[in-house]
Design brief:
Layout (H helix, E strand, L loop, with lengths): L10 H16 L10 H61 L5
């Protein structure tokens, strides 16, 4: 674990830090403009419009995802059924060629 703050601060450094913190405390806070209710409503409407556009753009992806999953499972099952006779034949040949250890 690293130590972020060390206790070995000289008195001069401590005074400099205290002076800086006092200057910082006396400085005025920055003014932030307060949005009028009309502009706040406009910003919210724009945000909702963008969210709706993003949702509509993602809708085809959400629809296709389960379809792609089912198509992949179907293709895998068909490939397994197609290859099953060859697999059974290969396994039976391997088992016939193995001699029992006596």
């Amino acid at each position: 674990m690293s130590r972020w703050f060390t206790a070995d601060v000289t008195p001069d450094e401590e005074r400099a830090i205290a002076a800086f913190m006092q200057r910082l405390a006396k400085s005025p806070a920055p003014e932030t403009p307060i949005l009028s209710s009309q502009s706040a409503i406009w910003w919210k409407a724009q945000l909702l419009r963008r969210w709706d556009e993003q949702r509509q753009a993602a809708r085809p992806l959400a629809i296709m995802e389960p379809i792609q999953f089912l198509a992949g499972l179907t293709a895998a099952a068909l490939m397994f059924l197609w290859a099953a006779p060859s697999l059974i034949q290969a396994v039976s040949q391997i088992l016939r060629s193995v001699r029992p250890i006596v």
